[in-house]
Design a protein that fits this description.
The protein is of the alpha/beta class. Helix 1 crosses helix 5, helix 2 runs parallel beside helix 3 and helix 6 packs across helix 7. The protein has 2 domains: 117 residues, Rossmann fold (3-Layer(aba) Sandwich), CATH 3.40.50.2300; 94 residues, Arc Repressor Mutant, subunit A (Orthogonal Bundle), CATH 1.10.10. The relative contact order is 0.10. It has 8 helices and 12 strands. Strand 11 and strand 12 form a beta hairpin. GO terms for molecular function: phosphorelay response regulator activity; transcription cis-regulatory region binding. Pfam families: Response_reg, Trans_reg_C. Keywords: DNA-binding, Phosphoprotein, Transcription, Transcription regulation, Two-component regulatory system. This is Response regulator transcription factor.
């Protein structure tokens, strides 16, 4: 019988005590060890004292907002982040994704949905027990080792978020094939529905890390009217891409 991995340690950063208590309660009942912080500086102190497996981070914190907290955590090392926001404006959600959040949930939200999102992000950040070993993947100067969850460009480590790594790995496993954003959301994020701008932002961030010139990508191409496709530099691209040098958004 396969041994199940421990659910993990989650840091909840939320200044509303009622919301923090509800979120911590649901995560605790799901088996997670939960730490709490109600300010940005306190969150950074807790991260420094004990590195969490995932952070649930409120965007609107007093003093130091969630965007700055996320940036500073990313400077210390990779950690999955799910951002909470009470704002309905798409620009705020995009900002959270741009600074490295792996997912976001808009208030008011279902605590059960949040727990499912936490499970989804953590599941994809860890090797699956009993899964068949996946060999290294390569496209030009980019190399990915799915077993070690490591990615390099010209031998130098790439600092990728959980979702960026998953997206790159998925595209590397299907070179030359165009995927719509709905397909990527389902196959990479594991969601049947959601905000498609999430995919767009992650593609843009990934291009910024793996392409020499993100404005004129050589690997991840935009397929107009469809979505995105990864072209291997050593192989003939398949399908029809849009005008050279143009990318969506």
């Amino acid at each position: 019988m396969e041994e199940r991995a421990e659910p993990g340690r989650v840091l909840v950063v939320e200044d509303d005590p009622t919301v923090a208590e509800v979120v911590a309660g649901y995560l605790g009942r799901a088996g997670y060890t939960v730490d709490r912080a109600d300010t940005g500086p306190e969150a950074l102190e807790r991260v420094a004292a004990q590195w969490p497996d995932l952070v649930v981070l409120d965007l609107m914190l007093p003093g130091m907002d969630g965007l700055e907290v996320c940036r500073r955590m990313r400077d210390r090392g990779p950690v999955p982040v799910i951002m909470l926001t009470a704002r309905g404006d798409e620009d705020d959600r995009v900002l959270g994704l741009e600074v490295g959040a792996d997912d976001y949930v808009t208030k008011p939200f279902s605590p059960r949905e949040l727990v499912l999102r936490v499970e989804s992000v953590l599941r994809r950040s860890r090797p699956r027990p009993g899964a068949a070993p996946a060999g290294p993947l390569r496209a030009g100067r980019i190399a990915v080792d799915p077993r070690a969850r490591s990615a390099t460009k010209d031998g130098a480590d790439l600092s990728l978020t959980v979702r960026e790594f998953d997206l790159l790995t998925f595209l590397l496993r299907h070179p030359g094939r165009a995927f719509g954003r709905e397909e990527l959301m389902r196959d990479v994020w594991g969601w049947e529905f959601g905000d498609l701008s999430t995919v767009t932002v992650h593609v843009r961030r990934l291009r910024g890390k793996i392409e020499d010139d993100p404005a004129r990508p050589e690997l991840i191409q935009t397929v107009w009217g469809v979505g995105y496709r990864l072209d291997r530099p050593d192989g003939a691209p398949q399908g029809a891409a849009g005008p050279a040098g143009r990318t969506e958004d």
